[in-house]
Amino acid sequence: MTLNRLINLMPKDPLDLPATASANHPYHHGNLRQALLNASMDIIRNQGIGGLSLRKLAEVVGVSRTAPYHHFKDKDALLAAVAAQGFAELSELLNEAILDEHLPLSDKLQQAVMGYLQFAIAHPTQYELMFGQMLWQDSKQTEFQRTAKDCFRLYVKIFESFEQHSQQSLNESPLRLAQVTWSTLHGLARLASDGIFAKKDDLDDIAKTVIKQIERSIESESE
Amino acid sequence: MTLNRLINLMPKDPLDLPATASANHPYHHGNLRQALLNASMDIIRNQGIGGLSLRKLAEVVGVSRTAPYHHFKDKDALLAAVAAQGFAELSELLNEAILDEHLPLSDKLQQAVMGYLQFAIAHPTQYELMFGQMLWQDSKQTEFQRTAKDCFRLYVKIFESFEQHSQQSLNESPLRLAQVTWSTLHGLARLASDGIFAKKDDLDDIAKTVIKQIERSIESESE
DNA sequence: CCTGCATTTTGACATTGTCAAGATAAGCCT
DNA sequence: AGGCTTATCTTGACAATGTCAAAATGCAGG
Question: Which chain A residues touch B196 with a CB distance below 8 Å?
């Protein structure tokens, strides 16, 4: 299976740090912010975005209902932080592929594509949060939006590499290629994780088709 | 502007039927179900999905809080119905292009692509609802899911036409082509309506790139 | 006219997001 | 050390919401 590297991403031991602090709450939790983020991701993964309530979250972490408000302005800010952490992880994953100097370009592309899909499949609900309108329309979430755009720039970078290492110039700008590629990946991710219009088993095959299509767009076009 | 046909879809006079029944509520509203749907779409368009509360909705329509429960099992069922109506409209729009017999195939493709994007841009929040995990993971929303899949089949149909009218066989199956095409469109719609990773003005240009890419996938490939 | 059924209403309850005011502890300065 | 400041956490409270149960209302057919 091509997608089995997925196992590395999937479960993720829930909360580590000072444990759930169930018995021994020392008035000051010490690391509440991260504990809240971890627990949130856990809940979101298992119960969906709508399944996350600040009160239940607080209880899980072992603090009172309003404690989270000292670390996040409101629920939206918490969700934005969860989403931002998602983008950070995704960026890390993409960087692994891009920064590897002795890796052929075509392999980089393939890794970037498969890595993206693996992430989306491993964290379907978090992924939905990352691209939901809620956070993108909210003008207060600038931090989140910056993190996300940093992530996208990595895709542009890949196609810039293609431009530099290629003889003739590409028939589309790296930006355009990144935009179209990302669009396809995003749609594919939705297909894959929800099985909206396709069976999950088809994914590998569809992904291959997509990579072929992208390469066709890069390679010197007839004339 | 290529996307100005959008105006035909955009505003949509809010509630028509027996009006909002503000002054003259006759105990039996007569058409509550559709009035609820209309008002819901209105609210969702203006305030987002999260901005829809059953109680406010009921007040807008002029009935008591629990009246809607006799037409929709619960809030999810209402949202599913709104989403389903979205798919129905989208199908209608696509059918216009597909059923037009004396329209060149390439024009059909272009219309199907642009129509889809226009719809997504005209109804961004409803569109998000239509593809949110909430409704796709909920095993109770079978009616909604069927309507959605009917819509997708129209895309497969387009590529089947290509297969029939083409000399040599396509290098990908119509299903695969539809899946990849839809993926790209879905991602592009997200790009366009939220400006996530691109400016809205770029959309027309990106759309053209996409159409070119699709056509490259259809045309006889230099094997 | 009366009875059954669809439709709508009022009352009630638990859950939730969030604010305000107070409690607790940790760090710092002298 | 003691006291001040500040970050962190708690309890109390409130309004908004989804939804259930029971009652009210009106229509349609016998």
Answer: 131, 136, 148, 152
